[in-house]
Amino acid sequence: MADDRLNRHDLTDSEWALVEPLLPAHPRQGHRWNDHRVVINGIFFRTRAGCPWRDLPVEYGNWKTVYNRHRRWSGDGTWEKILDGLRAGCDQAEGRAWTVAADATVVRAHQHAAGARHAPPGDIPAERLAVAVLSVPARTGG
After folding, report:
1. Could you report the per-residue pLDDT of 105-142, keeping only the tens digit for each?
2. Based on the number of CB atoms within 10 Å of its own CB, is 40 exposed (0-12), middle (13-18) or buried (19 or more)?
3. Model-level pTM?
4. How many other CB atoms are there within 10 angstroms of residue 108's CB atom?
């Protein structure tokens, strides 16, 4: 990519060295896959910019390839595996007292969210779509 305005937020070599071992292998059948690094940088660009998939810059490859890989990895748990691998050991210094706090008192849906489909997508297992219980609220006192 010649334009530094696009690639300034792309994965650095040191970041890529951490992420690469956590990614699924390229399948042996079919045509050659686009490089995972380029696709991930495209996913990150789209997430940062908030643009439609079709408006993804050509430097990140075909928008449909980037979208399909993002959707596949969202459905098969690859993103969770990557997150778990990257945060492994990060909380060791905190010990057993390590906690996560999230404030979700204000959650709003976009006005167009009311017309969402009622049936779950057929290509993603139902257990992957279930709401995860992340933690139990801490109680202090009695």
Report:
1. 666 777 666 766 677 777 878 777 777 666 666 666 55
2. buried
3. 0.63
4. 6
For residue 78, the one-letter residue type is T
Q: What count of Cα atoms within 13 Å lies in the side-chain half-sphere of residue 108?
A: 3
- One DSSP character per residue, 7-42 reads HTTSPPHHHHHHHGGGSPPPPSSSSPPPPHHHHHHH
Identity of residue 50: G
Residue 102 backbone class (left: φ over 0; alpha: ψ -120 to 50; beta: rest)? beta
- The answer to whether 77 touches 128, Cβ cutoff 8 Å, is yes
C-beta of residue 75 within 8 angstroms of C-beta of residue 124: yes
pLDDT of residue 66: 93
